[in-house]
């Protein structure tokens, strides 16, 4: 029997962009928002700016050197929503439940986001019909 994954809220939505500075300017012009934070994740090869919308972060992210997952995503799909992330109490427990449910996962064990000090794990995009889906613990 399928078990229900307890989620707390949509943690973040990540938008793959070619130029994070231009995307920041576009968001500022449209919404009047200034980024609530910025970070680089060398291991994931991304530069990120984010805007908090309630508890949910709207991230814009660009590839650092043209060789990472974001660059490949843009090449295949164009700019747009790449990641939908669900906040869970425990990534370890959430990932175990997803695996028990037979979900196709990209990570058999959680990864560590050093910049954010949080664990996360990805499901295969086919699970969510083309969107890379993630479970993540902790808070921004």
In brief:
Helices cover 22% and strands 36% of the residues.
Can you characterise this structure?
With 140 residues, the protein is α+β, with helices and mostly antiparallel strands. It has one domain (9-136): Roll (2,3-Dihydroxybiphenyl 1,2-Dioxygenase, domain 1), CATH 3.10.180.10. It has 3 helices and 8 strands. The N and C termini lie far apart (33 Å).
**What is the name of the CATH architecture?**
Roll
Please name the fourth-level CATH homologous superfamily: 2,3-Dihydroxybiphenyl 1,2-Dioxygenase, domain 1
The pLDDT mean sits at 96
CATH topology: 2,3-Dihydroxybiphenyl 1,2-Dioxygenase, domain 1
Tell me the number of strands: 8
Structural class: alpha+beta
How are strands sequenced across the largest beta sheet? 2-3-4-1-5-8-7-6
The portion of residues forming beta strands comes to: 35-45%
Rg, nearest Å: 15 Å
> Into how many domains do the coordinates divide?
1
CATH class: Alpha Beta
Distance between the termini: 33 Å
Q: Given the C-alpha coordinates, what overall shape results?
A: globular
């Amino acid at each position: 029997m399928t078990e229900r994954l307890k989620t707390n809220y949509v943690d973040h939505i990540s938008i793959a962009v070619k130029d994070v500075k231009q995307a920041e300017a576009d968001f500022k012009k449209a919404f009047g928002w200034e980024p609530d934070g910025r970070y680089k994740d060398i291991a994931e090869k991304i530069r990120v700016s984010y805007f908090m919308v309630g508890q949910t972060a709207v991230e814009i992210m660009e590839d650092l050197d043209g060789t990472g997952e974001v660059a490949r995503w843009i090449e295949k799909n164009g700019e747009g929503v790449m990641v939908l992330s669900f906040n869970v109490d425990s990534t370890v427990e959430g990932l175990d439940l997803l695996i028990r449910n037979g979900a196709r996962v990209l990570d058999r064990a959680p990864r560590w986001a050093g910049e954010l000090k949080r664990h996360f794990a990805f499901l295969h995009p086919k699970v969510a019909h083309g969107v890379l889906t993630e479970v993540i613990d902790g808070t921004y």
